[in-house]
Structure formats: C-alpha cells, structure tokens
Amino acid sequence: MTSPGHGKGRRALDALSELARGSARPPTTAELDSGLDTLRSRMEAEQPHRRSARQSSQTSLVRWSLVGALAAMAGLVAVGLVRPRSPTPAAPPALAYRVEGGSIVEGGYLRESGRDGIKLFFAEGTEFILMPGTRSRLREVAASGARIAIEQGTASFQVTPSPAGDRRWQVDVGPFLVTVKGTVFTVSWDAATEKFELKLRHGRVTVSGPVTGGEITLRAGQRLLVDLPRGETTINEQKAEESFESPVAPAPPPASKPASTLSPAKLEPAKLESDRRWTVALAAGHLDRILDEAQRAGLKATLEKASGDDLLALADAARYRRRMDLARDALLAERRRFPDSARTLDTAFLLGRVEEASDRGLARAIEWYDEYLMRAPTGTYASEALGRKMTLTSKLEGSSRARPIAEEYLRRFPAGTYAGPARAFLRAP
Amino acid sequence: MSQSGASLRLLNEVWNAKFMTTYRPHMPVSLVVAPDPREMSDLELARALVEGKAWAIGETWHRFAPAVILLARRALGSESEAEDVAQEVFQRVFAKASTLREPDRLRSFVFSFAIRVLKTELRAKRTRGWLSFHRPETLIDLSGAPTDMESRDLLRRFYGLLDRLAPRHRLVFVLRYLESMTLEEVAAHMELSLSTVKRSLERATSKLSVWIEAAPELAGFFEDARWNR
User: Fold this and answer.
1) DSSP category for residue A94
2) How far is A90 from chain B (nearest CA, A)?
3) Are B209 and A7 within 8 A, CB to CB?
4) Which of B211, B143, B116, B81 has the alpha carbon at shortest distance from A173?
5) Which of A78, A385, A411, B129 is deepest in the core (most CB within 10 A)?
6) Percent of chain A whose pLDDT exceeds 70
7) pLDDT of the residue at A361
8) Which residues of A touch B147 (CB under 8 A)?
9) The domain B137-229: what is its CATH number?
C-alpha cells in the first residue's frame, strides 16, 4: 500500500493496513460448504413468505377474501370446533442449549461466573466443557449444529452423531478450524506459545489451519500437536492407558475470594504457587487488573513472592501496557528466583523485546536474543529471536551486516515469519 | 425341417431389410458429458441464474463468495459478521437475479450488493454506537490474525479507528488499501465519481493518520514495522 502524503502517522497507517490485510484469510472449503447450507436453509425459509407476498399483491378482493377466510378459521380454531392442521414447514429452529457456570455476553463471548469452567448442553445431547480460564466465544447456533471459537485454553467436546448425519459442529481453535460430526475430543490452544493440541477419543475430525498443509483427518486414538513457531506438526497414536483425561473440568481450585479481590501481599508464597490467577487474567485480557493488584500488594513484595507463572503474566501485562521498567523487573526476578524453570529460558527473548522498546536498548536487545539463541537454539522463540536480531542489526549497523543473519535465518527457518524481510535483505544492493 | 429352415431364413431377410439397413458397425460413438459448471463463463452462469437453474446457485456461491467474504472480513474485522453479510448479499443476489440486465457483468452485480449490504451494516453499527450509553468494545475476530497479543491489540485499535470513519469513507479506504483496488475500480463498485472517491480517500487517510499520531502505541508500531517497508 502507498497511501498519499507522508509523516509518521501515514507510514504507521500503511503498516497497520498491511497487518489488517494479512489478518483476514479467505474462507475454507468447509466454511463455504457450511455457508451454502445455511443460505439454502434461509432461502427455503423465505419461500413461503415470498409466495404469500406475491399473492398479497393480487386483487384486494382475493386478499380480503383470504383475510376473511383466515379470520373465520382462526375463530373456529379458537372455539375448538376444528383442529388446526400441522403448521407450514418453516425454517428449522436452532438447537436449544443451556449454559452452566457462566453466561453469554455481547459478541457471543462466554463469561465464567465461577471458577469451575463453563458447560454447554445442547438439547440433542452434545456437550461442550470449557476448562477454567478458557476464553471462548459461541459464534453460531443453528438447527444444523453450532460453531464455537476457543481463543485460549482447553475444551472438551462430546458431539452426539445425528441419525441423518446432517449436523455440522465446528470449533475454531486459535488459527485452526476443527470440523466434527459425532465424536469425543479435547482441544487446547495456548496463544502465548502458539501451540495447538487435539486429542481424539472417538469418531473422526478434520483440522485445517496453518502448518497443517490442507485438511488433516484424524481418527480415534490419535493426538495432533502443532507447534506454530517451530512449524512442526506431529500426530501420535495414544496408548490405551494414557489415552485421555476425563473430559470434565479439573477439580475446582481451593475456595478463596474471587480473583479480582485477591491481594497478593496477604497470601503465602505457597498459595501463590498454586494459584495461577494472573495467567488466567492475562488470557482474559485483564491487563490493568494484574497491574493494579501488583501495585496494591507492593511491587517489591510481588517480585519476591509471586509464583513463576504470575511473574511472567505480570511481565506480559506490563509489556502490553508499555510499562517496560516493570516488565524488565518481573522478567529479571523470574530469572533470579526460578533459574531452573523451563519457562525461564523464554525470559531472555522477552527481555530482548523489552529492551527493544527503548531507543538506547537495541544493542542490549541483541545480546538477549543471542543468549536465547545460544541456550535454546530450537526453542519456541528461536525463529522470532533470530528475526529480531536481523532487524536490529540492520538498524544499528546497516543492512550489509544483517545479510549473514538473513542467510542463517533462511537456512534455519525458510518458512518463518521473517523469511520475507530476510530475502529482502539478500536482494538489497 | 427344411420348411422351417426356409421360413427362418426368410424371417432373417425381412428383419435385416426392415431394421438393419442403418446398422453401421464402425460408426464412432461419442460420450456426451454435461458441462462442468466450474468451467462455464460468468456469462453462461448468469444466464443459468436468470433462468432459475438450481445448480447455478451453488456455483455462484462457490465462485464469488470467497471474494465477498474476504472483503467483508477485511472491512469489518470480524469473521462472524462477515458471514452474516455474505448470507445477506447472496440472498439478495438470488432474489434479484431476474433483474440482471447485463449477464456478462455478474461479478459487478454481486459486488454491488456486497457494497450496499456492507454500507448498511456499517451504518447500523455506527447507529448502535450512538444509541448505546457505553461505547462497545471493538472485537477482532479474524482467525488469520497474528496470535501474539500485541499484534491483536494493534488490530483491535486499528479497527476501533475505522469504526470512527463515516461508512462511505471507510469502504473507500478498505477497497483501495486493503483490497488493493484501483481508484477506478473503487469508483465503479461504489457507484461514485472518481473525484468523490479521491476526496473520500484523502479524508479517510488524513483522519486515520492524525488519530494514529495521537496514539503513541499505534504510531510506535511504525518503528517495529520499518523493516517491512
């Protein structure tokens, strides 16, 4: 895009437009088929209305005769002299369902009312069970099935097969689309690490989305794992004994005050360890709540007492709210207090992102990326770290110094996020 | 026996004379296959649609719905809303197919409905925003969006700004910069003059640029995105 004019705002507008353009993807074959089915149902439902509309445009005599006849019929029905015939077939009603443990708010989002997750029960027997903290949205409920989006977290599905095989259930899990008929399965999506998992217990599902290379059909007993940053897709056969956890919500957490009223300062560290409320709040987008609670509890105390997961959630919330000093402190506290934690590796990458936010921190950011790449060469953020290092090197030292990094990037991550810029560096004179 | 053999021969001759005179054992036989709708031109498809051929509905949907849905997704930032828009567009297209005067312009016909429905949807959205006591949060529902929260937040803010534009300005901006149409194409689809399109575009980009500059977290995005230019 080349919008007219110049200035920082215009250039940022170009970049944002690029982002928006790339964020919308064309519909999949399954979505198109489903859309056509819905359209046909709507058109069939409209037919009687249209026909009656045509008839009503005929002579007023006919119209009034009809009205009179209908009124007479209604009168007869009202006094019970005749029984009405079965009604004209109209559009089939949407499936009835009820929600337990939460409610549906604007936009179809499911809001958890307690801490036990949410359950959706459909009249024909299908059940959706959303684990505590799962962020989801009920996108559509029709006569032919329903569509739900899981934006973060884990959910189990027990879909009752329809006798005619005409029901379609769809689950959007992050960037993946799972299409099912009759089956039992569990899906998980972690937006932070961009990992998708599907465990199929009974039946058959198809999964489409990035990395899957078209649609993947899974059969009972298979487990699909997709690691987006690494571009890896793995399908495992499940052993019988480890086959599946029960598709029910885990045991409820120990009774305590609601998350929004908790004060970290009043909690023991052991309690904090077992309570990942900030991780849940982060997934729900409650960034300010995390920062407020940390502030109320005292930042120093929080950095010393919060669990590893909560420290990372605090760092993320601070980064997203551009409070880079707090983000840096939380990440450094995580490294100092939990040096052996698996996620501590990630802090090097995240510290790089924090340093990037300050003009004078670019060189320091490269050092953090180097450390991450050295300690986790195949880690979750390896592609991103190398890509950022390439970008920053170009900024600081010119594109000629970025070229060797671009070559390394394309060698290691030919389909990575930064493959385009890497090729551009290599093409540049 | 000989009498019956003679009768049989006679019967054969009569049969051959009457029925087998056109028998040509080496005549080539060709299999006539019904034309594949996917290989038909827009013109042929439009004629079938006007004639009320049932298969034309499915083919029209599969041929044009992907572009309409993608346009609606980009314009609205929501897959579920885009789906509703597509349903409305094609329902109108099929209901009004008999009014298609120029069958060779089926694509334009479909897109003119898409633009009208989108404009109506954007107006309704704005009206809902005015009537509501609280400004509804802009929700981004695009499964192709980056999965990191920062990018999603940027997208949410960007669509929040688009919500502030007048529907016409927003659509002109979307067609030109998100759909990469030429100014002439935008003018044709929007049924506007070229100069009106240019004015609308200038107004939309100016307003968006000013709003972005006033929001440091959005303007800062440019710094991150500079490598991509």
Assistant:
1) P
2) 17
3) yes
4) B143
5) A385
6) 71
7) 83
8) 174-175, 191, 194, 228
9) 1.10.10.10
* Burial class for B2, CB neighbours closer than 10 Å (0-12, 13-18, 19+): exposed
Which residues on A lie below 8 Å from B148 (Cβ)?
Answer: 191, 194
* pLDDT per position as a tens digit, B140-151: 667 666 656 667
CB A115, CB A132: distance < 8 Å? yes
Domain ranges of chain B: 33-135, 137-229
Cα distance between residue A115 and residue A93, in whole Å = 32
Cβ pair B147:A7 closer than 8 A: no
DSSP H helices in A24-126: 29-56, 60-78
Q: Which residues of A93-132 are buried (b: 16+ CB within 10 A; e: fewer)?
A: eebebebebbebeeebbbebeebbbbbbebeeebbbbbbb
Mean pLDDT of B92-101: 88
The low-confidence residues of chain A, meaning pLDDT below 50, are 1-5, 59-61, 79-91, 240-274
Rounded to two decimals, the pTM is 0.43
Distance of residue B86 Cα from the nearest chain A Cα, in angstroms: 8
d(CA A378, CA A362): 23
Does the distance separating the beta carbons of B147 and A1 come in below 8 Å?
no
The packing angle between helices B42-50 and B106-131, to 10°, is 70
| Contact yes or no for A16 and B228 at CB 8 A | no
Taken in order of first residue, the domains within chain A and their CATH numbers are 97-237 (2.60.120.1440), 264-427 (1.25.40.10)
What 3 state SS string does A303-360 have?
HHHCCHHHHHHHHHHHHHCCCHHHHHHHHHHHHHHCCCCCCHHHHHHHHHHHHHCCHH
Interface predicted TM-score (ipTM) of this complex, two decimals: 0.76
Residue B165 to chain A, least CA–CA distance (Å): 14
pLDDT digits (tens, 9 = 90+) for B6-23: 666 666 665 555 544 444
CA contacts within 13 A on the Cβ side of A388: 28
Say how far apart CA A18 and CA A12 lie, in whole Å.
10
- Tell me how far CA of residue A72 lies from CA of A56, A79, A84, in angstroms: 18, 11, 12
Q: Which residues of B touch A23 (CB under 8 A)?
A: 140, 142, 144-146, 155
Residues from chain B that touch A43, judged by Cβ atoms under 8 A, are 57, 91, 94
- Enumerate residues 6+ apart whose C-beta is below 8 A from B165: B173, B204, B207, B208
The DSSP secondary-structure symbol of A407 reads H
Residues B157 and B218: beta-carbon distance below 8 Å: yes
d(CA B23, CA B17): 11
| The predicted structure's pLDDT at residue A333 | 93
Tokens of B60: 């029209």
Whether B90 contacts chain A with CB within 8 A: yes
